[in-house]
Design brief:
Length: about 325
């Protein structure tokens, strides 16, 4: 049977009916809010290439945590703007139990225990060369020695109270090593969300400004982050991370990589997250400022696209804004 008996526009004809037939729902519980931490007290530093996003000193991070809780956002993700004087070749500040990340994590868990704190494991906010790991004389980021530091970094974060450890470094084998170390230290319920399929991308520029690594970075990250030509390889990365003990996996960047989200979801049936990264955010902001589209509508449409593709949740700098829009 077909037209006129079947008219697909019938269920679209009114707002109540569109709501009734929506196949995908978006709520604040789908959002993780990335936040940038800086030194000081009462400090807010706007990030020029990420308009509307600031770095906050620890007190401001706690205020953002309360804001997230009140908006129904379940989790925040932290990234440090390490003072240049503390950046070294080996990124050893990552292991300091009193570093910015640990202070922010502990303060959040003390003030707002109701929300989760996700911490990024990688050395780039701490290294003088801006790479995620140790660099040898030939400029190559070495895997196994880096992994040893990442284990220590993860334990440092867990001791400060991190709920989700998120390795974003793309070293081979690090998920299994970190899982074993967490178990050994009694952190049985600390989760691992691996940046399993993370691509070497031109969309990370504003983030590197935010953590202060853009000017430092020599070369690119193509020897460890994935080639954007590949999708089968993403499935191998995800399979390995799951076998090594990842609770959840992430695809990054977000919108240009929804095909990867969908393949991962269909193959593994595990919780998949996507990161709407800094360059994606900046593109939407630029489009809104140029009058090319309505910011609020663009934001909600992209969030829904992530959910529709199979994401359990999205890391986005728009988390608070989107939660406010959803609250009406
Ligand atoms: C660190 C890290 C990066 C991002 C998240 N964790 C940058 C990079 O890999 O160079 C990017 C996030 C964004 O662009 O919003 N390894």
């Amino acid at each position: 049977m077909s037209y006129p008996a079947i008219r697909l526009r019938r269920t679209r004809a009114s707002a109540w009916s569109r709501r009734l037939h929506a196949e995908t729902v978006l709520t604040p519980a789908d959002l993780i809010w990335p936040l940038f931490v800086c030194e000081g007290d009462g400090v807010e530093e706007p990030i020029a290439s990420l308009p509307g996003v600031s770095r906050w000193s620890v007190d401001g991070i706690v205020a953002r945590g309360r804001e997230a809780r009140d908006l129904g956002i379940p989790c925040v993700a932290l990234f440090p703007n390490t003072p240049p004087a503390l950046k070294t070749e080996d990124g050893r500040e990552a292991l300091n139990p009193d570093n910015l990340m640990c202070r922010a994590t502990a303060a959040l868990k003390a003030a707002v225990p109701e929300i989760g704190v996700l911490t990024d494991v990688a050395l780039d906010p701490y290294t003088s060369h801006g790479h995620d790991g140790l660099v040898d004389a030939a400029g190559y980021v070495v895997n196994d020695a880096t992994a040893d530091l990442l284990i220590a970094q993860a334990l440092n974060q867990a001791a400060a109270g991190a709920d989700i450890i998120a390795p974003s470094d793309m070293m081979d084998g690090r998920v299994g090593l970190i899982r074993a170390a967490l178990e050994g230290a009694g952190h049985h319920n600390v989760q691992i969300m691996s940046y399993a399929a993370k691509y070497a991308s031109a969309f990370y520029g504003p983030f590197r400004d935010a953590v202060g690594s853009r000017g430092l970075l020599k070369g690119d990250k193509k020897t460890y982050q994935m080639d954007h030509a590949n999708t089968d390889e993403a499935l191998r990365e995800v399979a390995l991370d799951l076998a090594e003990g990842a609770d959840t996996v992430m695809v990054k960047p977000g919108l240009p990589y929804l095909d990867i989200v969908r393949r991962v979801k269909e193959r593994f049936d595990v919780p998949v997250f996507a990161y709407q990264v800094s360059g994606e955010y900046a593109m939407i902001e630029a489009a809104a400022v140029a009058g090319a589209g309505d910011r609020d509508a663009l934001v909600l449409e992209t969030m829904m696209a992530f959910k529709r593709a199979g994401c359990s949740g999205v890391l986005t700098y728009y988390a608070a804004h989107a939660a406010r829009l959803l609250a009406g």
